[in-house]
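Encode chain A's predicted structure.
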Amino acid sequence: MTKILAFDTSMSCPGVAVVEVTRGKPIVVAVSHVVTDSKQPHGLRAEIVEAWAVMFIAKHGASFDVIVREDFQGRSSRQNHPVFSAWGAVDQALNKFGLSFTTPAISQSAVKKAVVGKGKAEKDEVAAAVRRLTGYKGEFATDDESDAVAIALAWAIKNGLIKREG
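Encoded structure for chain A:
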């Protein structure tokens, strides 16, 4: 079994998922997200993201084979700063458990290509592909939760643990 922790990291609504892959079958173990208030300073919002990530990691055993996140390339420092602040917050949460990202980040288009079959897939297509691949029947409270699962699945597909459907 391979236990994957995957983050769809943003400052406004980051998502996280734990996906276990056993003999080519991925199972969604847990998903979560947190919403921050854009009226609050970045420092406070980053603290909220870190606290949420700490609680999620602690709840799910802090024992993962793979820890991965989606890559991000903003066009300006105004776009980059909030995302990179959230990245730092998640890094801090992982560090509290002696953990760190174990693999390079995966681009948004590579996640969509691996999971859906096209790099410009829409959010609903990603969620539908996640459900087909995992059999997940639960609710995704936000697209960020299904996106986090997709990041885990993209890593598993890229590394030959599972195959994307036709």
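The longest strand covers residues 25-33.
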